[in-house]
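Fold this sequence, please.
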Amino acid sequence: MEPFYIGDIKVEKPVVQGGMGVGVSLSGLAAAVANEGGIGVIASVGIGLLEKDFATDYQIANQRALRSEIRKARLATKGVIGLNVMVALTDYSEIINIAIDEKIDILFLGAGLPTDVPNEIGIERYKESGVKVVPIVSSGLAAKIILRKWDRNFGMVPDAFVVEGPLAGGHLGYKKEDLFKEEFRLENLLPQVIAEIKPFAEKYGRDIPVIAGGGIYTGKDIFDIFRLGAKAVQMGTRFVATHECDVTEEFKNEYIKCTKDEIVIIQSPVGLPGRAIRNRFLNEIEEGQAKKITCPWICLKNCDAKKAQYCIGQALANAKKGKLGEGFAFCGANAYRIDKVISVKELFAELEEGYDKAVSEA
């Protein structure tokens, strides 16, 4: 697999580890991926839920934990480290500014359209920082809206895009009824996003690579999606079942033991569909049982804690800690294919071997 560039950052292996929130991808996993030449990504969402004082001052806990994880990753690798940030977070602006302070390499921005990032950071500060901004989109239209607003308002464009298809894990940027429609397959979305980006890349005389994610599992998958124009892939699910992933063995075992039929689409309390592994907790939710909610901080702008059946942040934090009876694991559509835990190094070797074989056969 060939290196690719995001601006002036050279990435030796065209693999981006997807940001998986509420403590699934922290410094341990991100540094391990970066050390193999990929882009390791820390997820900022819910990071404060893992702190002892989150119930008394969630915002402070969140920001302290974020700085700590970025710094730990920096000590563990000289590779490329990114931060995944949900635009829908209530402290979104504070988080991206902390990332600038801590000299993160790349901001991956999803769950909303990041149309005003240069203003939120400060245009001069943004330019001086050297940080790369990579929106995560689920359609060519979303990419077009972001590009037009950046072009018109700031005279600049984002450094790359991630297009995430409906086979991804966690919260999904689609209507539930669209998840299994042919037109929303990653293979069909990718050319649309590339087409929308092309005129802006030409106008600014620069490459704006597209990273494709959602359902990528093997080296052959990587080869196939590269033939459609992607310059790199984003993979989340496969990195959960690695020794370096920042979750308990109980969480990893959910992936290893799950069957295809147990991977389901749920409706999140924050109004989005999500893909998860069915368990007793989700069965109880489906039956109408309400879980006690103690909300120290409205994490997401569109969450109505008074009406929610349960707190998804707390449920995911419990799962991260191995308390699967009090939460559940998000996952991608291919999680059932995982049968063992391996190292990040072994996973990269497997992907490269599969990629090389696909090249030879082609």
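The chain has two domains: 4-246+341-361, 250-326. The mean pLDDT is 93.
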